[in-house]
Structure formats: structure tokens, C-alpha cells
Amino acid sequence: MKYIVFCILLFMSISCIDSKQKKIVDLIREWESKEIVFPINPIFTIGGKDTVNFQVERNKYKIVVYVDSVGCTSCKLRLLAWKGFMAQIDSLSSNTVQFLYFIYPKNKMELSYNLMVDNFRYPVCFDEKDSLNKLNHFPGEMMFHTFLLDRANKVLAVGNPVYNQKIKKLYLDLILGREISNEKEELKTTAILSASKLDMGAFEWHYEQIGEFILTNSGNKPLIINEVVSSCGCTVIEYSSNPIQPRDSIKLKVRYKAEHPEYFNKTITVYCNAENAPFKLKISGNAK
């Protein structure tokens, strides 16, 4: 119960709309200690090609990642981030966590290509009948498609640790048996962005595009960027992790590399200790 309450507090901390907060609270409470049901004999493959003998085990913990076919699948996957998180878990907790990836693909060839490009060699289930979702009736919001489970497949925590550092810390604390407690509220400041939108125009799709935003600390306390999250894996944001002193600024450099020709409209979210955070940045253009 206390872990679900903590999840509620985390999600409320990144939402500023009362109606949205209420919906989040209701959803998380609905999933409190709920058992995730798995399909019978799901088939896992490496890179979508080689079938492997991989089963749902009775590990102390499981992390279940479900990706639906709505929108950009590769954007939702964030495979490189998951590779880093799995390596971190393995280095801290030997064989106590099983990762279960269930993907309902709209395009198997494209998904296999993404797995190959990112050299993702961990077993993945191409759930072509969307069986996992049909058995469990997941919420529509992507943020509620990742779960930390106990040995009995009961939900301990909800949220995607590769999108949110606080959720990531919660997962690690639970897995490592660390005390879960609410952190003291961090000192707040204010911040100003040079712009909220960036139009990259029209360009040849195979050329990387670079743009930037300027973030200025307009308050009287140091500004600390907790996390910058992109809605798409094809967008990378570079920035200094050092605290920004009052009246100082830093550049948020945005690199966009299209995977194929497309009109695009991507969102970048900046989480920081500013009272007016998080900041939503939009980048758009035509990769021809």
C-alpha cells in the first residue's frame, strides 16, 4: 500500500492539472496489488527472428513493459535507455529481477529493424494478438504500461523508470530493499525559456538537424535540471548537469535524426526545481 501511495505522489508531482491528478490517483489505486496475468506460453525472440527458450519465472521481482501499436513504437521503446537500466539492475542485484517485454507491433519488420539497430539482444515477445493487454485491460496512458511486480506477480509500483528518474529511484529502492520515504521538498526557483517551439524546416531526412533552447534561472536559488525526456528516441537533448546559478543560463542542444521521411512534431519535457516546471518544448519539421 505505501508503495502505491508513493507512486501517486510521484505522478502528482509532475502534473499540474487537478482533473488529471484525480485520474492518476484513481488509476494507481485501481492497480494497487493487482495481479498481472500472463498469456499461456508466450513466444519470445531475439531481434524478432530467433525464438528462445524464455519463460515467465518466479523471480523475486519482475519488471513488465508493455508497448502498444498506437503512434511511434520506436519512440515509446527507448531501447538504449532500457539497456542502461538493465545493466544497472544487474550490477546491483544479481538475478533477482526478470524483465518482460511485450510489444503489440503494427509493423514487425520495422520493430525488428529497431531492435537490430540498437543491438537489443534481450528476449522480446511480439504479442501480435495483444494478449497481455486483453488479459489485463491496461489503461490507455503510456505512463501506466510499465509495472514492478513481486514474486506472485502482484503490482508493487506503476510507472516507466526510463522516462522518470523518481520512478526509477523508487524501483531501485524497492528492489534493493532500501527505505522508502518522501524526500524533503527541494528549494524552488523560477526559470525562463527562450522559446517553447522550434521549427527545423524542411531537410533531407538522412541528415541530422541541430537546434537549441536557452534556459535561464530567473529566481534567487540554484536551478537544477532533474531530467529531460523526449517523446521520441530519434531526439537527443544535450545539456550541462551542473546547477544553474541565479541569472545564469545554459543551452539545451537538440539533435534530431529521422529514421525515415516524415513530417514530425515531437515533445521535449524538462523537469527541474522551477515553480513553473515542467517545461514542454516542441520541435517540428519536414524530413523529406
What does this structure look like?
It comes from Bacteroides faecium. InterPro entries: DUF1573, Ig-like_fold. The chain is α+β, with helices and mostly antiparallel strands and 288 residues long. It folds into two domains: 2-176, Glutaredoxin (3-Layer(aba) Sandwich); 191-287, Immunoglobulin-like (Sandwich). The protein is 25% helix and 31% strand. It is built from seven helices and 15 strands. The chain has helices at 2-13, 18-30, 73-77, 79-92, 108-117, 131-136, 165-176; strands at residues 44-46, 50-52, 61-67, 97-103, 124-126, 146-149, 155-158, 191-193, 197-203, 209-217, 225-230, 235-238, 249-256, 262-272, 279-287. It has a seven-stranded mixed sheet with strand order 2-1-5-4-3-6-7. A four-stranded antiparallel sheet has the order 8-10-13-12, with no helix packed on it. A hairpin with a 6-residue loop joins strand 14 (262-272) and strand 15. Helix 1 (2-13) runs antiparallel to helix 2 (18-30). The termini are far apart. The mean pLDDT is 83.
- Unreliable stretches (pLDDT < 50, length at least 5) are none
CATH class membership of the largest domain: Alpha Beta
Assembly form of the protein:
single chain
- Number of extended strands: 15
CATH superfamily of the largest domain: Glutaredoxin
Protein name: DUF1573 domain-containing protein
List keywords for this structure.
alpha+beta, 7 helices, 7-stranded mixed sheet, Glutaredoxin, 288 residues, 25% helix, single chain, Immunoglobulin-like, 2 domains
